[in-house]
Model the fold of this input.
Amino acid sequence: MGRGILTILIVVYIMATGCEGDGGKRVNSIGEDVLKITGEYTILDRSHEALYMEIFLESLYPKGSKLTLSDISVDIGGCTIESSNIGDRGLIFNDIDRSQIVKVIFKFRTPCTPESYILRGESYATYRDTAHKSIYISKEHNISIDTESTIGGSDSSFRLLSMDGDSSIFVGEIERYRLFIYDGNSTEPDGNSIMGESVKLVRIETLDPSKVKFIETSIYRTEYESEVEYLEFKSIEDVDLYVKGGDISGVADIKIEIEYIDSDGQLHTIVERGSIDVLSSDPTALSITSAGVEYEPESRWFKQRFLISATDRYGNIVGGSHKIRVSTMADFRDRDGRGREILFGEESGIERELIADSTTNRAVFKVDRELFNGINPERDFLLLFGDVKASEALGRWDIEPYSSGDTLNLRDSYYGDSHKGLGFAVGHNYIIDNCSGYYREWRVKVDSKNGIYELNGDGESFVELKFPPYLIGKRVALGVNLIGEKRVGEVHFERLNYRVKRPKTIDIERNSSETMKITHLFELDLAEDENIYIYNVDVNCSIELDNVEILSIEKSSRVDGYGDCGEFGERAFIRLEVKLIDLNSSGSIDFRDCHISPFDKF
Done:
């Protein structure tokens, strides 16, 4: 073997991706500096023609926020970049992953020693019901090059591979890996291994113990010894070790230190970094987050976006080509003809149980009273919601026509367990305009023709609901189910809302001695030439009076059928009977802080 410096080649995935964040810009009133760069790790090759860099990013957003930084680029001051391996996929910052690493390899057009860099990207932030996009540009950061860490020439190489030839591992699993140490002229570990006496020490350390640890044992067995963060091997050719994926997915950094003797008998030490890609396991839960509502003047309808995310049993976002089916329930079946809905939370006081039959792979839903006599299985369906541990039972269930008053026979195949105490609703995707004169049905539409969406590589999909003004103020349910043999679902209740147009100030001239009746029909706060009323919900305002006494107040009430339609149909209104207190002075009535206040309280 010729003289030179030994290097390490670790064949794993090094992913240069973005991070979900606000990019240092303000998102409404959430905060100022929301993305922090805490440092970087750099290696410059000996010819100064290539640079390896790891940029450490940390989200400063409050809990419950979610940030994405995509289309990342890095400007290196003073150097002309020929190429880089930055990808266009975004990394996610959330409550689980507050910090991320951007890894990139730059190749320079001519030899160069970089001195500083600026990180750029497109940020998308969500927090509660707010969402914001912005361009992120970091401040200029200095690059510190450690000359002792530069990469030299190579006489020998190393590869860390699992026994099936893959470099990745799933969360919670154990895989046997081998660190191959072999002649640099060989492209595969095919017998050209370095003799054991050349390598004096190999030390492997995990830098992300929450993602990867090692098993301290020389043979694989079910009852393995303790999990450790580093292992040492002395005077060896090839190293066998067992790697365990933690409960957090992502790229796990590892460090390998090797002491070896070159052909001249000189002792050398080299330290390099690599990574193991820890993959999420199968999805076991779905989450649904609202992303705000908009009005479309062309159609005079509204649209509201929701972010659907899939996670595994450890809470990791699940990537891959998983598909989901989305259902909407716009109204809930009346259980007794008095407007009381079949909608019960987990603490309803009603005994209820999903009973699984492992022989037929079907299930029934049973309650302790007659609630289901008036349902229509051709149009109505069941939603189950509640404890996420029972997520295999959640979401939409279609109903067989031969159900009874206290039992729903469910049409879907089911391979899960029985569950008690879940919340439930029975209804349909239409709501009736009782006072229209021709019994009109309004529906919620999804932007997918068949209700099917595919999750992206980050385990996410945006779903857009479209609905008419009549549904403003109404509560709807969004049911999502993973498509596949294993049932995973979730239900999200949303009060469709929008701003209320504030009534104009009412001025009363002095000497107006008569009692006056003032009626106002509430409208949505749209453009001046847009007049859309608010239907079958209450509207509350704070009222400021100047020299005016209110004698009586009449407000719109809930309409459950055609017989409840009054003077204004289902339009929300307020009627005041007022008079001046001092006839020698004028008076005024001012409405403030008007907002929709639904009749139902679930």
Notes: DSSP finds no helices and 44 strands in the chain.
